[in-house]
Design brief:
This protein is mainly α. The protein has 4 helices and no strands. Helix 1 runs antiparallel to helix 2 and helix 2 runs parallel beside helix 4. It is rod-shaped.
Length: 171
């Protein structure tokens, strides 16, 4: 029970936490190089979180990234308050993060479904191939039995013709 909890909840959440923390650290280091906050690393963290951990990890990464961006990069700094001027910018960040999470997790689900379909197709092809081999073997056996029956019939006909006084080679 605990192992299932660890793999379904803790691991994806941990992945999201580590990736958003790495994005925060890198963005703080890059803060002085750009006039506006460089938030692309948060999008990458959200996308990778959703890819590796699924939808819940992606949404958790959106929450963490939103909190980090609000606290560190949206004025007033070092506060969770948002002024009216930056609310649109912040809303766009949240919207883009949610879309990035959705796209990434949807793509992952699609690829997993495609992979599963490929596995099922390979299984069905293997089944059909085995059925075809069995059918071919049965057909060969049937053809051999037919050839033996035909040969026996020809032998019987020759014997009958010989018994009746006809040469099997005469017309």
């Amino acid at each position: 029970m605990l192992a299932k909890f660890a793999t379904t909840v803790l691991r994806p959440s941990g992945i999201a936490l580590v990736l958003v923390a790495a994005a925060l650290a890198a963005t703080l280091l890059l803060r002085g190089l750009f006039p506006y906050p460089f938030l692309f690393l948060f999008f990458a963290a959200v996308m990778v979180s959703a890819w590796l951990g699924g939808t819940s990890a992606g949404l958790f990464a959106v929450f963490l990234a939103t909190a980090a961006v609000d606290y560190f990069f949206v004025p007033p700094f070092d506060s969770f308050a948002i002024n009216a001027t930056d609310a649109t910018y912040f809303g766009a960040f949240i919207g883009c993060s949610l879309v990035a999470s959705w796209v990434s997790s949807s793509k992952k689900k699609s690829e997993e479904a495609l992979r599963e379909s490929g596995v099922q197709l390979e299984f069905r092809v293997a089944q059909r191939t085995a059925e075809l081999h069995r059918s071919n073997a049965e057909l060969r056996e049937s053809m051999q039995a037919h050839d033996k029956a035909q040969e026996a019939l020809m032998k019987h006909n020759r014997s009958w013709l010989t018994f009746r006084g006809f040469s099997p080679w005469e017309n």
